[in-house]
Amino acid sequence: MSTASLDCDDFFEATALPENFQGKKQSIETFVERHKGSKQPVVLVTSGGTTVPLESRTVRFIDNFSSGTRGSASAEYFLDQGYAVIFLHRHRSLLPFHRHVQSNILDHLTVSTAGSDPLITVQSDKTEKLVPILQRYLDAQSKGRLLLVSFTSLGDYLHLLRETSRALQPLKSRAMLYLAAAVSDFHIPANMMPEHKIQSANGPLQLSLQLVPKMLRPLVKDWTPDAFVISFKLETDKDILVWKARKALEQYQHKVVVANVLDTRKMEVTLVTSETQEPIRLPEKDATEGKEIEELIIQKLSELHSQFRKASEKS
Ligand code: 9Z3
């Protein structure tokens, strides 16, 4: 076994399981089992940022930036493309379909108590937008095609990522992993973490963070070697972006990196494969009409996945 995968094993050994791990594992396995008999592709979408706790009884933590828009929008477009979706997301980040409902929804409802049962009505200017969203949501729900699983910390995320990847392996090339979550590269290992809240009376705080072992390596090699794996590369400096994406592909040998720059991520990404490099841009006009770049990304990735499946099934 390589040193890198030993690092990963050590990480899992030292890091507590997430709350209700067995329940989550069971629901993932049941979901995969239910979709095993069909020809439908299944995708794991990861979304939102991971926290890195500074104390075991956590009061403070470091967070990775992500609102969950990329992941939740992508999950909806995957459903439209006929995928069953496991949505592994940061607790309280944006959820597919729910993201369209504003937090002040109560301001747009009226109640009529004329009949025997009170009737809630949505203001008519909102129904036009809500009806198609609700229909797509109810359709996914009734067909059991969307599973929501939440995480908070880096440790929770990685335990659940490993479990879900392993559960997807029997689906072979029918499985896709779309790793859009913003995952910390640094952490404080459990044995170096104070138990109680760090006290300000002790003076200024100096933090020393360790590197998180690169989990894409065992994921591609051991956990789910036959799946179509897509990772994301986020940079703030566009000049190093594609180079970093290529380096990741060479290192981990997966299929695609979606490369994006923080400031322009809603308008432009580059799909990088070992042979190609294709920019995807959302025209300004489409953006003003409410279209989203995720629709274009998912269209392209489902095409690539379908080609990959055909090639894998032949060999
Ligand atoms: C991304 O790059 C996502 O596209 C964003 C989406 C997090 C920028 P939002 O949720 O943002 O719509 O607000 N995700 C991957 C980020 C990441 O952690 N990548 C690492 C890296 O770049 C691991 S591959 O090194």
From TrEMBL:
<dbReference type="GO" id="GO:0015937">
    <property type="term" value="P:coenzyme A biosynthetic process"/>
</dbReference>
<dbReference type="InterPro" id="IPR007085">
    <property type="entry name" value="DNA/pantothenate-metab_flavo_C"/>
</dbReference>
<dbReference type="Pfam" id="PF04127">
    <property type="entry name" value="DFP"/>
</dbReference>
<protein>
    <recommendedName>
        <fullName>Phosphopantothenate--cysteine ligase</fullName>
        <ecNumber>6.3.2.51</ecNumber>
    </recommendedName>
</protein>
<dbReference type="GO" id="GO:0004632">
    <property type="term" value="F:phosphopantothenate--cysteine ligase activity"/>
</dbReference>
<dbReference type="InterPro" id="IPR035929">
    <property type="entry name" value="CoaB-like_sf"/>
</dbReference>
<feature type="domain" description="DNA/pantothenate metabolism flavoprotein C-terminal">
    <location>
        <begin position="170"/>
        <end position="282"/>
    </location>
</feature>
<comment type="function">
    <text>Catalyzes the second step in the biosynthesis of coenzyme A from vitamin B5, where cysteine is conjugated to 4'-phosphopantothenate to form 4-phosphopantothenoylcysteine. Has a preference for ATP over CTP as a cosubstrate.</text>
</comment>
<comment type="similarity">
    <text>Belongs to the PPC synthetase family.</text>
</comment>
<feature type="domain" description="DNA/pantothenate metabolism flavoprotein C-terminal">
    <location>
        <begin position="42"/>
        <end position="93"/>
    </location>
</feature>
